[in-house]
Design a protein that fits this description.
Order of helices and strands: HHHHHH
Largest sheet: none
Structural class: mainly alpha
């Protein structure tokens, strides 16, 4: 279960990345994809996914659902920055010698999706 240090930290990340990307103009061929994502957020997460309070409550609820559904001895709660150790320990394998790939940061996501591109 990938978690953040707090619901507020999760919200700051989601708002600056995923939710911000939803506001971008998109080509017509992505209209069905966009509608599917909005439906997913609205039905599985919360209809008020763009509002901090309801979205953070949904984040906590979904994490609690996973914690309830998965036996504690089979659940790994992992935070960005934890690296290999928690995952490898749970799997009973050695930690790789190469560094953990820290990718998809807020800055990388925003650059990849054009959120920080200069306006035309």
């Amino acid at each position: 279960l990938s978690v953040r240090e707090s619901p507020e930290a999760w919200w700051r990340s989601a708002e600056a990345t995923i939710f911000a990307a939803m506001d971008q103009e998109r080509p017509p061929e992505l209209a069905a994809w966009y509608e599917m994502i909005v439906a997913l957020f609205s039905t599985r997460f919360t209809e008020r996914w763009r509002e901090p309070g309801p979205a953070m409550a949904a984040y906590e609820r979904l994490n609690d659902e996973v914690r309830s559904a998965v036996p504690a001895d089979r659940l790994v709660e992992w935070r960005p920055g934890d690296g290999w150790a928690p995952i490898c320990d749970a799997l009973g394998v050695a930690v790789p010698s190469e560094p953990f790939p820290h990718v998809n940061s807020t800055d990388e996501f925003r650059a990849m999706t054009g959120l920080d591109a200069p306006s035309a």
